[in-house]
Specification:
Largest sheet: 8 strands, mixed
Order of helices and strands: EEEEHHEEHEHEHH
Helix content: 25-40%
Strand order of the largest sheet: 1-2-3-8-7-4-6-5
Distance between the termini: 49 Å
Structural class: alpha/beta
Radius of gyration: 16 Å
Strand content: 15-25%
Length: 212
């Protein structure tokens, strides 16, 4: 197994950790964290809408409003631009004692959905640090452990896959926590964890005021 900080090969799927906006990556599929009963139009969802991918966000919103999803569920939609798919993962506002498992399950499921696309294969998937947002309860390290752990499990149990690369995008923060997960291999052997990121009411209030 070839490994270096920031990059690792897991059964033919390359996992990379980069700093940047997930919606600006050259990817066939962008993973978007969502609420159970509506689209999350802040953060990644808002960035997708502003970059011409509103068709996919509207499709998710319509489906979630009609029949709410459960935490860990996923939906793959056409983003509406440049053959980019949106991989909606229902992870936003999951309980802190379940969020790690929810992120792990949702990431595993969206990899499976992408792998089943026969006409337009998803070779490169870009994913943000799921569960670390304003109302998220996962630390950066926990999020990386859940996401990369799901890729590792998928690569071992899936066999042949069209997926070549998963890019974990760290936005406006250090990539060190995710790189530590890669370096230490702590993504192996899934074990449930309780979210350890404390809720920041000041950051929450600023985010809410900014969305009005």
């Amino acid at each position: 197994m070839e490994k270096k900080v920031g990059r690792i090969d897991l059964g033919g799927i390359t996992v990379k950790v980069v700093e940047g906006d997930v919606t600006c990556q050259r990817a066939n599929c962008i993973v978007v964290p969502e609420f159970c009963n509506c689209a999350s139009l802040g953060g990644v969802g808002g960035a997708c809408a502003s970059r011409g991918l509103s068709q996919g966000m509207k499709a998710y919103d319509k489906r979630a409003n009609t029949k709410p999803f459960a935490f860990g569920d996923v939906l793959l939609t056409d983003g509406g631009r440049n053959n980019i798919l949106l991989g909606h993962v229902v992870t936003v506002d999951a309980p802190e004692d379940k969020q790690f498992e929810v992120v792990y399950k949702a990431m595993f499921e969206i990899l499976g959905e992408c792998n089943q696309k026969p006409v337009f294969p998803c070779r490169r998937i870009a994913v943000p640090e799921l569960g670390t947002g304003i109302i998220g309860s996962l630390t950066q390290e926990q999020s990386a452990r859940a996401i990369i752990g799901a890729v590792d499990a998928f690569s071992r149990f899936c066999g042949a896959t069209s997926i070549e690369e998963v890019v974990l995008c760290v936005y406006n923060a250090s990539t060190a926590p995710a790189e530590k997960v890669l370096e230490e291999g702590s993504y192996r052997d899934f074990k449930p964890e309780t979210g350890q990121k404390p809720f920041d009411p000041e950051a929450w209030l600023q985010a809410m005021c900014g969305s009005i």
